[in-house]
Design brief:
The complex is a heterodimer of chains A (about 350) and B (about 375). Chain A is α+β, with helices and mostly antiparallel strands and about 350 residues long. Chain A is built from 8 helices and 13 strands. The longest helix of chain A has 17 residues. With about 375 residues, chain B is α/β, with parallel strands linked by helices. Chain B folds into 3 domains: about 120 residues, Rossmann fold (3-Layer(aba) Sandwich), CATH 3.40.50.11750; about 150 residues, Rossmann fold (3-Layer(aba) Sandwich); about 40 residues, no CATH class. Chain B is built from 15 helices and 11 strands. In chain B, strands 2-1-7-8-9 form a 5-stranded parallel β-sheet. Chain B has a 4-stranded parallel β-sheet with strand order 4-3-5-6, with helices on both faces. In chain B, strand 1, helix 2 and strand 2 form a beta-alpha-beta unit. The chains are: A alpha+beta (about 350), B alpha/beta (about 375). At the A-B interface, helix 7 and strand 13 of A face helix 15 of B.
Chain lengths: ~350, ~375
């Protein structure tokens, strides 16, 4: 495994500096691509060279997830589609209370994608995987004609070993549970939105894309009674809270003033007429923990990378089952509902 | 955030609320004209803070809500023409016409794009000379100057592949129409601060005098709304009907002179249909003949025949302040953001959507 994938084989190979259809054709070019781009970056941890399958040891209860990644632009402040694909998948495993172990990655490349971009994406994927201590053990590549993809799509499957002794699921949420969010919300969605060239807004916002496995495993190691975990990706914090309230048939009470939102994110949302509670995060999670464990959980999170800015934002009630109620800073309460479709910038 | 945080300050809000409650003695019905203010009132649960005798009804000031069905249908039809790129503001894309919305047109293969400025659509036209770019321009006096600049920029660039489907509307004539209606129960107005930032307040003294209603130009933060209502209530209690400016940090009497000149150069005032209100005399803008080349209606020879509204939708009454959304039997039942019967349920500024989203109580 090359130590720094960014430095391996810096020259365009076989005279191509862009992806061509033949890179997915199964012939010499494809083998070259696999060897010089993917294997150079990911290594071959299972010595599975030449096989499409991989054999792994799991032991114990296993968590399994699969996810597909598309993002425009491919590169944004704080990450790119490669790191996002790794973080998104390991985070889904972490939400099961599992330690992420192995990933597989399938790439759908669009004809014409600069190979330098592909190298950069694969390099950042390898870096994110190393940091998250997972191996990318097998994968696949297809090339589609120009205009039939958006540069690159990545589909990732992940497996992990469940570390939680109890099931982590919405039905374990109880009245009195404390609701904790691991950090400020909305950074990723706003960073990506601002990175799109059609929005000429200058704002210093970086994606929060990161593995949340370390803070989640820290909670479990500390013996916190974690009832449910969710990462607020698409639809943001509001949507996952609505999902859990509905699945658990309990009321969720949230204090709006306690929800951490970075000033840059709040500013951009004011300008665009968006609500940060509905904007995607890629390195945050919400935890429903037994009420009596809340203080310890916050203490543990605040001493773990990725959880330093954790806040307690609310609690679970038996009243108003299925409904999330937001306590407003000016007094009064309102219902926090799911959105219809995507948030769109408003007219004026 | 400056200009935001201090206008959401709980202590100041409490004091403003106390003052408003002290002033209001008799029952009054007032209207906030602008959808942005409707949204603020619902978002911050301001109705809970008002003194009981004061009723605030919501006006027609949601640009998406008042755009007639036939114009949305024309936009859809244009978007579906081969070679056309249709650009508009984000919240226009979800508004249902008679046969679907622009997002559905996109799924059918239309090239529909969200822009934040009409000038982006002009730039797109300059960069794609083989495509016809149409900008679907909606909105009140706030968005008209940018659309006017787009027409002017297209003229300067001598673009043959850029046109405007312009459905801009004006607030003061809509206020006059509402006040002239026999069923009108509005005794005072919060005028739209951002409309006045652009257009100034020059048209309001005549309305205040003719209909004997006080008008307070008001901002959009919760404290602005409470201040605006306080000024309005004081006038009502003292029997005055003047034009006051609660929002001087943004509004000058003569508005934005450069923007007004640009609108005046490109557009002429014209009668215009409002969804829910019908034809509003002098209620909108049309491109002047000098800009006919960039008028999509003329370029594509569109005929805009009025289309009947959904029979069950009572948006017309909502937009006139005659029906509170919560009193509509369809709200939350047959009419939801997923299946809107009418435009006020679609736009974030629509009164029905604001009520659906913010005013439902926990069971």
């Amino acid at each position: 495994m090359a130590d720094d994938p960014e430095l391996s084989c810096p020259l365009p190979f076989a005279g191509y500096d862009r992806v061509v259809l033949a890179h997915g054709g199964g012939g010499r070019l494809m083998h070259q691509l696999v060897r010089d781009v993917f294997l150079a970056a990911f290594g071959d941890p299972l010595q599975a060279r030449g096989h499409d399958g991989a054999v792994v040891e799991l032991g114990g209860r296993t968590a399994l997830t699969t996810d597909a990644f598309t993002v425009r632009p491919l590169f944004f402040p704080g990450g790119d589609i490669g790191s996002l694909a790794v973080h998104g998948t390991v985070n889904d495993l972490a939400m099961c209370g599992a330690r992420p172990l192995h990933l597989t990655a399938s790439f759908i490349l669009e004809e014409g994608l600069p190979l330098a971009d592909l190298r950069r994406i694969v390099g950042s994927m390898a870096g994110a995987a190393r940091q998250a201590r997972v191996g990318i053990v097998t994968g696949d590549t297809k090339v589609v004609e120009r205009g039939k993809g958006d540069g690159v799509f990545i589909a990732v499957t992940g497996v992990g070993r469940v570390e939680s002794r109890h099931e982590i699921a919405a039905h374990r949420v109880r009245p009195g549970d404390a609701l904790i969010v691991s950090g400020p919300v909305g950074d990723h969605g706003v960073a990506v939105m601002l990175a799109r060239e059609d929005l000429a807004i200058e704002c210093d916002v970086t994606s929060d894309s990161a593995s949340v496995a370390p803070p989640v495993l820290a909670l479990l190691d500390a013996g916190i009674d974690v009832h449910c975990l969710r990462d607020p990706t698409r639809g943001g914090l509001a949507t996952v809270l609505c999902e859990i309230a509905s699945a658990a048939r309990l009321g969720v009470h949230v204090v709006e003033a306690a929800i951490p939102v970075r000033p840059g994110v709040a500013d951009a949302c004011e300008l665009l007429g968006l609500d940060p509670l509905y904007i995607a995060c890629e390195g945050r999670f919400v935890a429903f923990v037994a009420g009596e464990d809340a203080e310890l959980a916050l203490e543990v999170l605040r001493h773990t990378p990725g959880g330093e800015e954790a806040r307690r934002i609310g609690h679970v009630r038996a009243e108003h089952p299925g409904v999330v109620v937001l306590e407003q800073p000016l007094g009064g309460e309102r219902v926090l509902d799911m959105l219809t479709g995507e948030q769109l910038p408003r007219i004026c | 955030m400056r200009y935001v945080d201090e206008f959401r300050d709980p202590e100041r809000m409490r004091r403003a609320q106390d003052e408003l409650c002290r002033i209001v003695m008799r029952p009054w019905t007032v209207m906030e004209i602008c959808g942005g203010q409707t949204h603020t009132i619902a978002r911050w649960a301001l109705a809970d803070r008002l003194p009981a005798p004061l009723t605030v009804v919501h006006g027609p000031g949601c640009p998406v809500c008042v755009t007639p069905l036939e114009v949305i249908e024309a936009a859809r039809a244009l978007a579906l023409r081969p070679g056309v790129i249709l650009c508009s503001f984000g919240d226009m894309l979800r508004v249902p016409g008679a046969a679907g919305d622009l997002l559905q047109a996109r799924a059918l293969g239309a090239d529909v794009r969200v822009v934040l400025s009409p000038l982006d659509a002009v730039r797109l036209a300059a960069a794609t000379p083989d495509r016809q770019v149409v900008f679907f321009g909606v909105g009140f006096e706030t968005t008209a100057p940018a659309t006017a600049m787009a027409a002017e920029l297209a003229r300067r660039l001598d673009l043959d592949n850029f046109t405007l489907l312009a459905a801009h509307v004006r607030v003061p004539p809509a206020m006059e129409l509402l006040l002239g209606s026999p069923s009108c129960r509005i005794q005072g107005f919060l005028a739209a601060g951002h409309v006045c930032t652009v257009a100034g307040t020059g048209e309001y003294p005549a309305i205040a005098a003719r209909f004997r209603v006080p008008i307070v130009v008001t901002g959009f933060e919760p404290l602005d709304i409470l201040h605006g209502l306080t000024l309005l209530a004081r006038q009502l209690e003292e029997g005055r009907c003047e034009v006051e400016n609660q929002y001087p940090r943004s509004v000058r009497d003569d508005g934005n002179v450069a923007a007004r000149a640009m609108v005046e150069a490109v557009f002429a005032v014209a009668d215009r249909p409002f969804r829910g209100l019908g034809i509003v005399p002098r209620g909108g803008l049309r491109l002047r003949d000098a800009y006919a080349r960039w008028d999509a209606e003329r370029r594509f020879e569109l005929t805009l025949t009025p289309i009947e509204e959904h029979g069950r939708c009572r948006a017309a009454e909502v937009l006139q302040g005659l029906l509170t959304p919560t009193d509509c039997p369809e709200l939350g039942g047959r009419c939801t953001p997923e299946t809107p019967l009418g435009a006020p349920m679609v736009s974030t500024e629509g009164a029905c959507a604001a009520y659906f989203r913010y005013r439902r109580r926990a069971r």
